[in-house]
Design a protein that fits this description.
Radius of gyration: 23 Å
Strand content: 5-15%
Order of helices and strands: HHHHHEEHEEEEHHHHH
Number of domains: 2
Helix content: 40-55%
Bound molecules: zinc ion
Number of helices: 11
Distance between the termini: 35 Å
Mean pLDDT: 95
């Protein structure tokens, strides 16, 4: 999981652009007028969201009571394929250094193809087009998320716009051999004493997004890449075990710089460097 850059322009202006692009239909010729008449309600909820976002107190966000037809009206504002949201997604894909970050910040596996509502749109329909309530992610992560966002009065998941992902290692992988087959088991632990509240939300996300299973599924491909780069190092430079490990560790440092300490590919590579038996197994595939 990686903290990412959020939308920094005026959220209400964004909403106005979304509404401007909407069309009345033959069946519903008064939609835009109805929405314009709700501007005060929208403005109040957006203003509260912005101040709670800045203070990191979103768990206290007021729920506005709405009728089912009002809810339907608000939800009509959000269409992922609409230009406003496609433009937003593109804007958010560039990090603070101007580099494109093409990965899903929740799982660090796939590319993003959707926008997730941080506070669920089922509970906060008015916020369905608030640009700071929309975070880009892959479709698997988006599908795995649910409307449940609170746990004992606290937010259940990390908000990757405002929460820091702890720098302590929280993700681990157990490596073992079953015959000649490597077995991988990813898990999280607070053994390195990360901030307890951030760890609680990190762990909830890890479980809800089924990251242990999804990382495991990606691991064989990663191992194939490791073996192939090891092969090159042995063939070209006759690299010793220590040199091979130094090369792996230096690629890990680059990865962690870009994706964070708990980046799963980095954790996997380090686990091989730290386990003599598994390192020997890996090397046996490269010679
Ligand atoms: Zn994802």
């Amino acid at each position: 999981m990686k903290k990412v850059k959020f939308y920094s322009d005026d959220a209400l202006d964004f909403h106005k652009d979304v509404l401007k692009a909407k069309r009345n239909t033959k069946d519903d010729p008064t939609y835009k007028k109805r929405m314009e008449d709700r501007e005060d309600t929208i403005s109040a909820q957006f203003t509260e969201y912005d101040s709670r976002f800045a203070a990191n107190t979103l768990e206290g966000m007021s729920v506005v009571k709405l009728t089912s037809s009002q809810i339907a009206d608000f939800l009509r504002l959000y269409r992922y394929k609409d230009k406003c949201f496609q433009d937003l997604e593109e804007k958010l894909s560039v990090d603070e250094n101007g580099h494109e970050y093409p990965y899903c910040p929740m799982c660090d596996i796939g590319e993003y193809h959707s926008l997730d509502h941080i506070l669920p749109k089922g509970v906060f329909p008015i916020l369905c087009d608030h640009p700071k309530n929309l975070i880009r992610c892959c479709s698997t992560c988006n599908e795995n998320k649910s409307e449940v966002w609170l746990e004992g009065g606290k937010r259940k998941f990390l908000d990757l716009y405002i929460d820091d992902v702890p720098n302590e290692q929280m993700l681990f992988v157990d490596l073992s051999l079953n015959g000649d087959l490597a077995v991988y088991k990813y898990y999280v632990s607070d053994v390195n004493h990360p901030n307890p509240d951030l760890y609680r939300m990190y762990k909830n996300g890890f479980e809800k997004l089924e990251l242990a299973r999804r990382y495991k599924k990606q691991t064989n491909e990663e191992i194939t890449n490791m073996i192939s780069s090891m092969k090159d190092n042995i063939k070209q430079f006759n690299a010793t075990d220590d040199q091979l490990k130094t090369s792996i560790r230096s690629s890990v440092a680059d990865m962690q710089q870009r994706h964070g300490v708990n980046y799963w590919r980095a954790i996997l590579k380090l686990a091989f460097c730290d386990d003599a038996k598994m390192f020997a197994w890996l090397k046996s595939k490269a010679v």
